[in-house]
Amino acid sequence: MRCAWKTRSSRREAERRALRYSLRLTRSPRFTRTKALLPLALLAAAPAPAPADHPRTFLLSIGKIPLKDTESIEAFSISTWGVEFKSVCRIPGGWRIKAGSSATPNGELAGEGSQGATWFNDASPRELRGFVLVTLYMPVQRDDIRSQDGTSLIPATFKGYATLSTDDGERRVPLTYRNVTLAAARRCPNA
Fold it and tell me: Which residues contact 108 (CB under 8 A, 6 or more apart)?
């Protein structure tokens, strides 16, 4: 192996020159300022941490329920997954609203009108717009996730039914994520 230095004395002399140059450089005012700003420059050049997956809070509305001219909404029930109910902002007159979840991710939002005069004749009733404050911990899952044998592993975020009063009695129509509208919010709107 060949050495880049011809003699040991020339190597030592090169090391001394390098040391003198670095000492001269470190004592200069310009180097001191640069040295002081180095940690800031390193912080600025460092990649920013990835944003944390924070929960998001929304006002929940129920609507787009397929009604015929002579039908009205007398009740609804929606099973939820990954939804935390913060508050029922308002209760429509003549209705009972139940909202809650257990220690597991599943929960329920249900409502029932007390008599025909309080039932809704509109497919998207104004009284059910932004009436519940919820927190979602993951994006809305539209459908159940099933295993290969067909059993449900993780249910859809919103799944349920509405009970409609008809001329011939009652009928149930399914409710899904399509019937739920979420609007970003931090708290219930003022009444």
Answer: 77, 78, 79, 80, 98, 99, 100, 101
The 10s digit of each residue's pLDDT in 121-145 is 999 999 999 999 999 988 999 998 8
pTM of model > 0.85: no
Cβ count near 107 (within 10 Å):
18
Separation between Cα atoms, residue 130 and residue 48, nearest integer Å: 36
Rg, C-alpha atoms of the chain: 33
The four Cα atoms 18, 21, 26, 28 give a dihedral, to 10 degrees, of -170
Sites in the chain below the pLDDT cut of 50:
1, 5, 40-52
